[in-house]
Amino acid sequence: MITTALRFAQDNETRTNFLYLSTITRSSGLLLGAAVALLWRPWRKAPNRLVLARSLVADALAIASIVVIGVLMATVHVADARLYQGGLAATTISSAVIIAVVMRPNGVLVKKFFSQDLFVEIGRRSYGLYLWHWPIFVIIDARDSGNRLAIAFAATVIINEFVYRFVEIPARQGALGNWWRNRPRLSAIRRRLPVFIASAMVALLGFTGVKVVGIEARDLAIDASTANVIFAVPTTVV
Asked: Residues 193, 152: one domain?
């Protein structure tokens, strides 16, 4: 977190991309999450007289953390110095606080809110949504207009739901192992189906990479004051 703040340089697009996307600079979130998983023991019993008080304090911290994340999402742009000089750290810590509070068995407000079926189902699909949104947003050029953004959101949800139901859940239930054991008895199409799926995903990532290179080849001007991204497409080739 400290390194990210110190390494940020205003108007340095390469440095900004590195700090925003690099696993090295984002590792603080991974490490903090691992620390919470290792050290947080919310199921340990507390004296009855302290249960309600602790729950109220925990809820207050979680609500404050939600507000912090919401404010950062609404006011800070990817090229904004505030994002790197405290914003990412605040997001990481706030996220850890929310997760820790939701894990508490005696939660009063925040735990019950996030335990609703809607949020549970979103949580089960959240990593897939995170993985799929990037190539889809790049391919559709979601930043170009509100309509494209809406289409990209819808496509992400639909594609992820398909993958969740027909790839992720079967894989968790042992479909790959069953496929491998039963390969000699399967039809030619079913024997090759996992290969087709893997090839399609690799092709999608490759196409996304080509699109990203094409975008980066343009002159990218970021107006941090208005949070607008403006692409100036070259009209001549030197």
From this structure: yes
